[in-house]
Each structure stands twice: as C-alpha cells, then as structure tokens.
Write a structure and sequence with these properties.
Length: about 400
C-alpha cells in the first residue's frame, strides 16, 4: 500500500473564484493532488488578495485558501479572455465558480450550460442563497449569512449576540462544495457523466445549525446564549485559575459529577446532594454550581488544575489564544506543520486534516503570484507568441 498516488492526481480543476468559499473548496482539491487553475481578474486578481497584509505582506485569507494553485489573469468581459477560459474548461474535469448571482450565466459559465456542452464535466455553482427564491440576488458576505442562518442568535452572551470568529458560512459552503465534487467524481466513475453541483452558503450553514434548530422547532424554545457555557449542561464552562489562565471543563453525566465533587472540589457530599446530583438540578442551580467549581479551580495554577481534572477523568482543556495554538504540543508532536512557498518566501502552514496513511503526503503547493502561470497556460491552450503578446498589450491577460 505504500506509495499510493494522491487521490485526485490527474484531475484538473478550473476555478473562476474569489473571496473564501470557492477558493477554500478548491484548495482542498489541490491538497489532494488535483491541478487547480485559478482564473483571476487582471486588475488586482481575487479581491481577497487585498484584505490585509498580515502574512509577511500577503493577505492571510489568500494565503490560507490558495496554495497549490496556478494563477492566470484574464479579462472575462473581453471575448478573447472568455475564449481562453472555455479552452481550459474543455480539458478540465471540474469547474467551480462563485461569481455574483447571474454573472456566470451571462458569461455562459453556469453549470447547466457547461454540462450540456461537456457531459463529463462536473460544474459547481457556489452562491450565497441559491439560484432561485426571493434572496437569490442578495449580496451574501459571510457575516450577513451568519445573521440570516441564525448563527449569531445563538453565539455570544445573554446580553450580546456575536458573530463567529471565523468565516463559518464561507467554510461551510466550501466544505460542501468540496465533498460535492468528490461525490460527483465517484458518480462519474460509475456512469461516465459529470453534472452540476449547487451549494449555497445559507443552506450549508443552516445544516450546521441543526442542534439549535431542532431544539427550537421541536422543543419550542431556542437555546439561550451562554457565552462559553453550555446551554443545557452544567458544569460546562471556562473557569479562571490562580495564574491568570482559564480552564474549560465538561461534566457529561452524573458519575463524572460525583468524581469531580470528590477528587477536585474536595466535597464528596455534593455528588449526592439533590440540588446538584443531576444535570437538570445543576443547570437549575447553574450560578451556584459554577461558583463551587470556580472556587476550587481559582485556587490552582492552570497546569495543576488540568492535571487534577485529568486524573479524575474529567474532560478539560486549556483556553488557548492563537499564539498558543501555533505552539500547540499536539500539533508539534504529530508533525503537522510544513512550509509552503509564496511570492514573499516560505510561510508556515498546517497539513490538511485529511490524512491518508499509506499514500503520499498532501500536496501543499506554493501560493501563486497574480498571473504567475498566465504565459504557460496560454501556451498550453494553443496560443501563439503573437496572440499572447496581443492579449497582454490589450490588457486581456496579465
């Protein structure tokens, strides 16, 4: 089994993409061995390139979502630029786009049109709200969709709803687009036909809202916002420690509560006290429950508290910031960090979470400069030196 090739080796993907959702999906494909050709605007490229300069001068979003791709810069409003894209698609297995609603159809790059012309092609439309319905033409940025999907309503404190700290709607759509492509490739392997794949950010994130949604529509009431605490389990929260850290612990059943009471709180009688013995009772007396746990952990250092909880068999975690994640001992022990090339030199990046033992490691290619592969791709599309020079002179390619 050793030496198996990357699972998507030989698969070619053309992507007219921007921002996060579609680029995140196609980066997963690139990591698994697919060749991903990223079509960008000639005037600045994917606008995510300009979000910030935090990654050694490059945009952190762009570095995260675009390694391992080839960049070609084209003006799709010019028929010659559009012709180049159509030539690339003719030789591709997968096409992905997340242009504004209606833009792909006006260019003839929507999934229905392309799949009719290329029966083996898998064509993916990633949108904010889907191709129909009253919201089809609304602008759909991540935080807007988080609001529409109800995520913001269940995140935060009792007095203040907050957005997720990551682009959850973009990531949800990207991962369903990625898995949709894999499913369509499997189907094509048995039927010989590709076909359209549609993913919307709203529908992807609404699926992720399953627990609070079912809690509300079947139970009658939405779960309360409880900050770091769990809405229906206690104790399940983060508690300050004596050295300024915070430790999160979770008691999932009453046996664990009895262990916590005896071995951490030093008050075994709480394990059978009717006001705390069951989860329902602890939730009902949440403030008192949290005060008992907080008092015990507040007298301990973070490392000491974690060791005591681990010894008692209580699920726990250190509340880390991003610098501490960067230095996480588990990621280091499992050798999850690599370096990828970029226009500004090597950048630190995590291996993708899909591990395929017995095969080759994920392909973590370079982050491309805008138009870095334009020349080579135009030549591969059959263009002559004179045609390429004309495209560059007229601003159709860059």
């Amino acid at each position: 089994m050793d030496g198996l090739p990357p699972p998507l080796e030989g698969v070619t993907v053309v992507a007219v993409e921007q921002a996060v959702a579609a680029p995140f999906a196609t980066r997963q494909l690139a990591d698994l061995g697919a060749r991903v050709i990223k079509v960008e605007r000639v005037d600045g490229g994917d606008f995510a390139r300009g979000y910030d300069t935090a990654a050694a001068g490059l945009a952190s979003h762009f570095v995260w979502c675009n390694r391992g791709k080839e960049s070609i810069a084209l003006d799709l409003k010019d028929p010659r630029g559009l012709d180049v894209v159509r030539r690339l698609i003719a030789d591709a297995d997968v096409f992905v786009q997340n242009l504004a609603q209606g833009a792909a159809a006006r260019l003839g790059l929507d999934a229905a049109t392309l799949c009719a012309a290329h029966p083996r092609l898998i064509a993916v439309d990633v949108s904010g709200y889907g191709s129909g319905g009253p919201y089809a033409d609304k602008r759909a940025y991540d935080m807007l969709v988080q609001c529409e999907a109800g995520l913001v309503s269940v995140t935060g404190t009792p007095g203040q709803p907050v957005k997720a700290g990551i682009p959850a709607a973009d990531i949800a759509a990207g991962m369903y687009a990625f898995s949709g492509v894999l499913a369509a490739l499997v189907r094509r392997g048995t039927t010989g036909r590709g076909g359209p794949v549609e993913v919307s950010m709203l529908e992807a994130l609404a699926e992720w809202m399953g627990h609070p949604l079912h809690h509300t529509i079947h139970g009658g009431t939405p779960p309360e916002r409880t900050g770091l605490a769990h809405a229906v389990i206690a104790p399940y929260d983060a508690y300050p420690t004596a050295d300024g850290g915070r430790v999160l612990l979770s008691v999932q059943n009453d046996r664990e509560w009895r262990r916590l009471a005896e071995r951490v709180l030093g008050r075994p009688g709480l394990g059978t006290d009717p006001e705390f013995a069951t989860n329902a009772a602890r939730v009902r007396h949440r403030e008192r429950t949290d005060a008992l746990v907080g008092e015990a952990l507040g007298a301990l250092g973070t490392d000491e508290a974690l060791a005591l909880l681990e010894a008692a068999g209580i699920a726990c975690a250190r509340l880390r910031d991003l610098r501490e994640l960067n230095e996480h001992p588990q990621l280091a022990a499992r050798e999850r960090w690599r370096e990828v090339g970029s226009p500004v030199g090597p950048l630190r990046a995590l291996l993708p979470p899909i591990t395929l033992p017995g095969g080759s490691e994920a392909r973590m290619g370079d982050v491309p400069a805008l138009g870095e592969h334009t020349e080579a791709l135009l030549r591969a599309a059959g263009m002559t030196d004179e045609e390429i020079a004309a495209l560059r002179r007229d601003g159709v390619a860059a």
